[in-house]
Structures are given as structure tokens and as C-alpha cells.
Design a protein that fits this description.
4-stranded mixed beta sheet; 2,3-Dihydroxybiphenyl 1,2-Dioxygenase, domain 1; alpha+beta; 2 domains; Glyas_Bleomycin-R_OHBP_Dase
Length: 142
């Protein structure tokens, strides 16, 4: 399947404060809100369906793996954006006071797979990564 044939994914994630996370996805990430109930909310997450579901807060620690000497949270999710969109989005998030786990930076600069990436958490502690490839055709390059 090529990227032009991709279908939207559906992802459901747990949140311990539905209203706080609803505000974050709607007002900070600018995701359009869809259907909802008293225990879940649908969002248009960059063309994909993201559903936040209420779940009591967990005390589990976030697992991380070292990548480029940075502690990358696992699990995490996000979207690959066009290069210029990533830059604009990173500035918007910074202006809205988002606390980055890993500040926006460039990986593999000048190499195959050059990419911009950034990590932050939603109010429930779910880790998000947004990235962009300098050359989108190299998304799956080895």
C-alpha cells in the first residue's frame, strides 16, 4: 500500500480527565471534535479518528528507550506532517505553552531519512510524536 492509498486509522486512548483532554485536543492541537458521550470524545486527528476514553488515572511509570541520546517515551503516537507544516505547528505549540519532552530538532541531517521530530504529552500523560521528512519518499527508506 502506498501513502496515497492510506486509509484513516482509528486510535482510542485512555484519559483520566475527559474535559481537560477534550480542551487540549480541540484548542491546543486544533483537532475538530466529532461525536461524544459522557465517557468518550471523537476527534479528527489530522484526518484520522482519535477517540479519548475516560479511564481512572494509572500510577504506572512511562517506559522510555534511548534514541539519539534522548529518552523517547514508549508507547507514543502521532502524525507525519509535511515539512513546512511541521515547522509552523511546532511554533504554534510553543506559543501555546506546550511543555516538550523532546524539543523540535532535526535527526539524520543531510542523510537518507532526514527528519524533524518533537515529543510532548497530553494532559493524561499520553506521549505524542510529530515528525516530518525532508523527502517524504524516504519515509520507509532503509
Amino acid at each position: 500500500m502506498t501513502t496515497s492509498e492510506l486509509s484513516p486509522f482509528h486510535l482510542a486512548i485512555p484519559v483520566h480527565n475527559l474535559e481537560e483532554c477534550r480542551t487540549f485536543y480541540r484548542d491546543v492541537l486544533n483537532c475538530e471534535e466529532g461525536r461524544s458521550s459522557d465517557h468518550w470524545v471523537d476527534f479528527n486527528f489530522f484526518g484520522h479518528q482519535l477517540v479519548i476514553h475516560y479511564k481512572a488515572q494509572s500510577t504506572e511509570d512511562t517506559h522510555t528507550n534511548s534514541v539519539d541520546g534522548k529518552s523517547v517515551p514508549v508507547p507514543h503516537y502521532g502524525v507525519v506532517l509535511p515539512w513546512n507544516t511541521f515547522q509552523d505547528f511546532a511554533k504554534q505549540l510553543s506559543n501555546k505553552g506546550v511543555d516538550f519532552i523532546i524539543e523540535p530538532y532535526i535527526r539524520f541531517e543531510g542523510q537518507v531519512g532526514e527528519q524533524a521530530t518533537m515529543f510532548f504529552k497530553d494532559p493524561a500523560g499520553n506521549a505524542l510524536e510529530f515528525k516530518a521528512f525532508k523527502d517524504m519518499s524516504l519515509l520507509f527508506a532503509k
